[in-house]
Amino acid sequence: MATENIEDAKAQMGYDPTTNYDEATMAQQRQIEQEIAGCQPLIGKETDLKTLHDEYSPEDKIYQDKITDLQRKHSAYRRIRMDGNCFYRGFGFGYMEKLLKDKSELQRFKEVVTTSKDEMIKLGFPSFTIEDFHSNFIEVLEKLEKDCGVDELLEIFNDQGYSDYLVVYLRLLVSGHLQKNDDFFMNFIEGGRSVKEFCAQEVEPMGKESDHIHITALTAITGVPVCIEYMDRSEGHGVTTLVFPDDKTPVLTLLYKPGHYDLLY
Amino acid sequence: MASMEKRLQKELQALQRDPPVGVKVDTDKLTSNLSEWTVNLTGAPGTLYEGENFVLHFKFGSRYPFDSPQVIFGGANIPVHPHVYSNGHICLSILTEDWSPALSVQSVCLSIVSMLSSCKEKKRPPDNAIYVKTCSKNPKKTRWWYHDDQV
Fold first, then answer.
1. Among A38, B75, B100, B147, which residue's CB has the most CB atoms within a 10 Å radius?
2. Do A118 and A214 fall into the same domain?
3. Are residues A166 and A143 in the same domain?
4. Residue B106 belongs to what domain range?
């Protein structure tokens, strides 16, 4: 009888042992990714912050209050595509947009990027792939030195091939910084993994999301302080503001909603 | 030239100029746009696979290096190893979720050689029979569970 019941249950759930479920699951994941890609550019247009109110129900008091609080300090935002690379892409675009108007900061940053390559090769990154991503990154910085405007920058960041190259280099910078300072960062890594393993699993692959440790590393290695406004379901009427590192004046601000970063103005 | 082809062109040059021990690209079998490669591997001395020859097939999509290549063992000799199925599929995390664009054909080959070298007992994965029967032709369409890094 027991066997019959199990067979009944399997039949009810539509389970077929000869079917390949992995393939169906992954096809569905891909379809969802494509739907997101279809309706959302990698970096969106600058939009008035008040439109954010419409995304939440008017009864959703926690979020409505927090958006109102956000409006005291900020007026607009850009939506970044939700593909797990939003922190790097948002940081990259937001910062380079500032660089358009600050040539001396651009020179400082170019210097940082230039020296980073040898540092990373010294750490054991394969020089061949590092060079490829490095030269692309420098190429974009050289465009900024010429007469590149916001529209062209937006075009670069919305061209997936180009944009992903920039994201990869930022990921490699973070990985390099964490590995170089592994004595310190090993204290923040869970699951008994080494810093190198953490980097291979949570930093270097595309689409892996970013947390405090990634933000700390990227702001340190680039020398670009960042402010993050945290908007979540926690109690209180205001957003939580954190600056990385906390004793510096931030150059750009990102809005964090659980699992995602957008760019704030 | 597409960025995937440009990148593969550079990888090929580097691999021919400076091939790692036991890794050799079969240049006769390269396709014209470089989207398929055949690489010959030799088991490292002092390991269970010493002197054995293996063939790896690489397939690259247009999103390479942002998407991982598809990599399977082919030919007559599929290594008997706890992470290699008898149809040539390999359970190795850098081939799917831990893939990074900073990796390359060379680093994949070296990881596979090192996976073989650290093996202590030649045997197939415990779920070999059922997996080989139901899996997709493309190992990237399998949602792998990575058990351990010991072998």
1. B100
2. yes
3. yes
4. 2-141
Indicate whether A103 and A127 sit together in one domain: yes
Torsion of CA A114, A116, A117, A118, to 10 degrees: 110
Closest Cα in chain A, distance from residue B132 (Å): 11
Checking if the pLDDT of B151 tops 60, the result is: no
Task: Measure CB to CB from residue B97 to each of A19, A25, A205 and give the nearest one.
Answer: A205
**Distance between CA atoms of residues A32 and B49, nearest Å:** 43
What does the pLDDT read at residue B140? 84
User: Tens digit of pLDDT for each residue in A36-82?
Assistant: 776 789 999 999 999 999 999 999 999 999 999 999 999 999 999 99
Task: Check which CATH number belongs to the domain holding B12 and give it.
Answer: 3.10.110.10
**Whether A120 contacts chain B with CB within 8 A:** no
- B107 contacts in A (CB within 8 Å)? 126
Residues A130 and A259 in one domain: no
- Residues A191 and B80: their CA atoms lie apart, in Å, by 31
Number of domains in chain A: 2
Nearest CA in chain B to A160: B63
Residues of B in contact with A209 (CB under 8 A): none
The CATH code of the domain that includes A185 is 1.20.1300.20
> Do residue A115 and residue A236 come from a single domain?
no
Contact A247, A202 (CB under 8 A): no
Chain B contacts in chain A segment 149-188 (CB below 8 A):
161, 164, 168, 171-172
pLDDT at A187: 94
Chains A, B: CB pairs < 8 Å: 62
CB within 8 Å: A26 and B97: no
Single-letter residue type at A106? L
Asked whether residue A2 carries a pLDDT value surpassing 60, the answer given is no
Instruction: For A24, name the nearest residue in chain B, comparing CA atoms only.
Output: B141
- In the DSSP assignment, the letter for residue A78 is E
- The verdict on whether omega for the bond into residue B65 sits within 30 degrees of 0, i.e. cis, is yes
**pLDDT tens digits, B133-144:** 888 888 887 877
B135 carries an active-site annotation? no
Q: Whole domain around residue A236: which residue ranges?
A: 50-79+225-264
Burial of A263 (0-12, 13-18, 19+ CB in 10 A): buried
pTM greater than 0.80 (yes/no): yes
Interface probe with B: pick from A16, A23, A120, most Cβ of B within 10 Å? A23
- pLDDT (tens digit per residue) in B64-111: 999 999 999 999 999 999 999 999 999 999 999 899 999 999 999 999
